[in-house]
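Session log. Operator J.P. requested a structure for one protein chain; no other inputs attached. Running the standard single-chain path with token output.
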Amino acid sequence: MKKISKIVVFVLCCLSSRAQHYPTFSQYIVNGLAINPAYAGRNGVMDVTMSHRRQWLGFNGSPVTTALSLNTPLRRKAIGVGMTVVDDKIGPFSNQFVSGIYSYRVRIGRYKLSFGIQSGVAISKANYESLTRNQQQDALINGQRLVDIGFISGAGVYLHNKQLFAGLSAPYLVNTLNSNFLKENPIILTGGYFIGLDREHGIKPSILVRYVNNSPVTGDINLNYYYKYQFGFGLSYRTNKSLVAIAEFGINHQLRVCYSYDCELNRLKKYQNGSHEILIRYYFGYNINAKNPRTMFL
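Structure written below.
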């Protein structure tokens, strides 16, 4: 079984390097900044979010992603700033992203429309010595760049009010890395609507559509249920045949913990034990939005 897992992971790593693997998150509904820089300052207060994801447990070299983000509105409420730090590993490859974020919001009737940009540095590393090779002088491996440093930049737009949100983003629109890794840049469309059933119950259907050049369009269909706007549970179906269960817990008005579990529905499910992701968020100065706790779910 271990031998089969190593073979499958190596194939997946090779496919990912051709398909230009970027960090994957299941809790983008909770942490919109992970996929759209226009989200910065959206909640009206400073918040710090940390997430950790372990994908395809049981595979050696499976993806592991750790991310830290911070965003806040400035005194001039139309402006938001933030930053993200991401460490992403898969097989012999590791990638680090550090980006600064700026957003500007305008009011259109009952809605707010945000425009955001992010720019920073990407570091891509390859540790081919960790691979088992039959030929030490493999021409496909020897001569490859082990470390590559480049500039990355992206942009997005985000429309929202207390019930609705919609966004379009290309978080890695510009990429100057010289390696063949991380060359294709995803375009991501999101949208959702919060429906308050009464003062204690609510549901939020939402979707995400992801397009990458030379790859099939993929999508997520999500439905979340909330009780007293402090506890939430939801399911997501991905068109690449996986099911995601998400739970959100509001410890208090400022601290929130989220957990998700991904279950593959394809042939890979025989060789791995699913994916786990945990997220912790802390809001500073939450009293600004205390009268509208449901906005924290959008």
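Operator note: The helical segments are 2-19.
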